[in-house]
Specification:
This protein has helices at 3-8, 22-34, 45-54, 68-74, 91-97, 106-118, and strands at residues 13-18, 39-42, 56-63, 83-86. Helix content is 47%, strand content 18%. By secondary structure, the chain is α/β, with parallel strands linked by helices. A 4-stranded parallel beta sheet has the order 2-1-3-4, sandwiched between helices.
């Protein structure tokens, strides 16, 4: 966890990158920072939740299901924080075979299924 960066950016909206793999986490951080986004990182959900107390997190980027989504959903202060899930699948394969639908699904599920079947 990059706590020094987190403390400096306490009042800024930042992106939180969560990934247990250090090189992959650093790569995502570097790419986002080069694009002009302030970023903090965490190696797992415990580190991530520590950062939620220190930093105004605008968006979370996380790889797969590491328990973080359930913890965000269980915290009423965090349920509106958008989450980008990354996948080890190639980006082309991920676009063809994967879609994330936020619960409650309502019409989103039908839209997602239609989009996947029509593509």
């Amino acid at each position: 966890m990059r706590e020094g960066t987190a403390v400096q950016k306490r009042n800024m909206q930042v992106i939180l990158v969560v990934d247990p793999d250090g090189p992959r986490r650093d790569f995502a951080r570097q790419r986002l920072e080069r694009a002009g986004y302030p970023v903090v990182t965490a190696s797992g959900s415990d580190d991530a939740f520590s950062l939620f107390r220190l930093v105004n997190i605008a968006l979370v980027v996380t790889r797969g299901d590491n328990g973080l989504l359930e913890r965000i959903a269980a915290d009423s202060k965090l349920t509106t924080v958008p989450v980008v899930l990354t996948s080890p699948a190639s980006s082309a394969a991920a676009r063809r075979h994967t879609v994330a639908v936020r619960e409650p699904v309502d019409g989103q599920l039908v839209d997602a299924v239609t989009k996947m079947l029509d593509s």
